Amino acid sequence: MIVRWLNKLEETIFCALLVAMVFLVCVEVFYRFVLAEGISWAQEGSLYLSGWFVLFGVSWGVKHGTHIGVDVLVKKLPRGGRRIVTLVALAVCLTYCGLLLVGSFQYLSLTRMIGIELQDIPIPKWQATLILPIGMGLLVLRFVELGWRVIKGDADSFGFSDEGQESMRLAEQRDPADYDKEGRP
């Protein structure tokens, strides 16, 4: 139940960040090109919004298997071999996340202690970069969830998106009568 609530919260924040980022950039473009004056904090705001969006998106991508990956050799292994390779890869990923988590806490505590503010927005930098441990924490959660599914036998790999296979599926669905000799609609 907690994980389901966290999933919903994560997706809601993910969508809100995307909307806020697009809105801010559109307003800035309007101000700059129509009113001939910019918003002083728009660039920094959109930069931090995109950082938050990316770090929320990384864990979302692991959850939904939308990251690209090179798994040509792993796909050729039997199911048991894929599970072992996936568990080893997850251990490496969790180690990396642990290092980033520790580093992000050190960075946040240092910026909080020094009292640095953002350049154009009057808020403490540690608050703007709070996504670093949050994003890494969510990523750790997704890797642990995937590891548990691999151990239980419900999954045997990261489930990367396969663009080649998806392109072939879409090509098979199209009606040749709708296209000219060069393949244009």
Automatic annotation (TrEMBL):
Residues 161-185 are annotated as: Disordered. It comes from the Bacteria. The chain crosses the membrane at residues 12-34, 46-63, 84-106, 126-144. GO terms for biological process: C4-dicarboxylate transport. It is a multi-pass membrane protein. Residues 169-185 have a biased composition (Basic and acidic residues). It is found in: Cell inner membrane. The keyword Membrane applies. One of its GO terms (molecular function) is transmembrane transporter activity. One of its GO terms (cellular component) is plasma membrane. Residues 21-151 form the Tripartite ATP-independent periplasmic transporters DctQ component domain. Keywords: Cell inner membrane, Cell membrane, Membrane, Transmembrane, Transmembrane helix, Transport. Coiled coil: none annotated. InterPro entries: DctQ, TRAP_DctQ. Pfam families: DctQ. Its main location: membrane. Belongs to the TRAP transporter small permease family. Part of the tripartite ATP-independent periplasmic (TRAP) transport system. The complex comprises the extracytoplasmic solute receptor protein and the two transmembrane proteins. This is TRAP transporter small permease protein. The lineage of its organism: Bacteria, Pseudomonadati, Pseudomonadota, Gammaproteobacteria, Oceanospirillales.
